[in-house]
Design brief:
The chain is of the alpha+beta class and 155 residues long. The protein has a single domain, classed as Secreted effector protein pipB2 fold (2-Layer Sandwich), CATH 3.30.2450. The protein is built from four helices and seven strands, in the order βββαββββααα. It has a four-stranded antiparallel sheet with strand order 4-5-6-7. A three-stranded antiparallel sheet has the order 1-2-3. α1 packs antiparallel against α2, α1 packs parallel to α4 and α2 packs antiparallel against α4. It is globular and about 40 Å long. The two termini are 24 Å apart.
Length: 155
């Protein structure tokens, strides 16, 4: 049985945001940038909705994100009630597979994983005005996608 996943996204500053994953055994922390993958937050929330959807077939989906010059692939998979996250780091934007390094892997209950992400998005949302989220992330907060995740969790 996997330990419970905790996800942290700190308030953005000047287009950068620190993120972290901790399951009590392994952890991974980095910073991410708002560009060039400008839809990363929305795409992440949409993938999590799909993870929870029992009407879709099992899958693997990739979310690209960057730290500049490093790049990341967040690979989300689902098989039945289980889901997984694998984070692969590339030293440059060329995404050379020979230089890729898996920096974090987690698998567990799909609902618990989605709840961990929802909790941190909810915190970002609640503090968005204080933290001037949109000014500091240089993008709108993905409210609609966060609400879609909440609805999927309620099913």
């Amino acid at each position: 049985m996997s330990a419970k996943l905790e996800v942290s996204f700190n308030s953005p500053q000047c287009g950068w945001m620190s993120i972290g994953f901790d399951d009590g055994i392994n952890e991974f922390h980095t910073t991410t940038a708002h560009a060039p993958h400008s839809n990363a937050l929305s795409e992440l929330l949409n993938i999590l909705v799909d993870v929870l959807d029992d009407n879709t077939e099992d899958f693997s989906r990739k979310l690209e994100w960057n730290r500049d010059p490093e790049e990341f692939d967040f690979i989300f998979g689902r098989r039945g009630a289980e889901a997984s996250i694998k984070i692969i780091e590339y030293p440059t934007g060329s995404r050379d597979q020979e230089k890729a390094e898996t920096v974090y892997v987690y698998s567990g209950d799909k609902k618990q994983i989605a709840q961990a992400f929802y909790k941190t998005f909810r915190q970002l949302y609640d503090e968005r005005n204080i933290d001037e989220f949109e000014q500091n992330w240089h993008q709108k907060f993905p409210v609609e996608e966060m609400n879609d995740l909440f609805k999927a969790l309620e099913k």
